[in-house]
Amino acid sequence: MAKSSDKNTPAKNDSAHEDEQAPRDLTDHLVEYARENPGTACLWCLGIGFILGWKLKPW
């Protein structure tokens, strides 16, 4: 006999799965983009690091 807990629950688990999958999809997309366009990805990282370092400087 199948237990009632073995059945899939409706949309609650689907939305939780999508929430967990979204950051992984974004990361995969960014890694793929960086492999296809390494120069552009490098400049983006440099620019973001420069802005963060400038705005978050300790003094």
Summed up, what is this model?
With 59 residues, the chain is an all-alpha fold.
Structural write-up:
By secondary structure, the protein is mainly alpha-helical. It is built from two helices and no strands.
* Total number of helices: 2
Look at the structure and give the mean pLDDT: 81
Quantity of strands, as a count: 0
End-to-end CA span? 67 Å
Overall structural class, as computed from helix and strand content, comes to mainly alpha
How much of the residues is beta strand, in percent? under 5%
Query: What sequence of helices (H) and strands (E) makes up the elements?
Result: HH
Give the overall shape, derived from the CA principal axes.
Answer: flat
Q: Could you tell me the radius of gyration in angstroms?
A: 20 Å
Helix content: over 70%
Low-confidence stretches: none
**What composes the largest sheet?**
none
List the defining traits of the structure above.
2 helices, flat, 59 residues
SSE map:
Blueprint: H1 11-36, H2 38-55
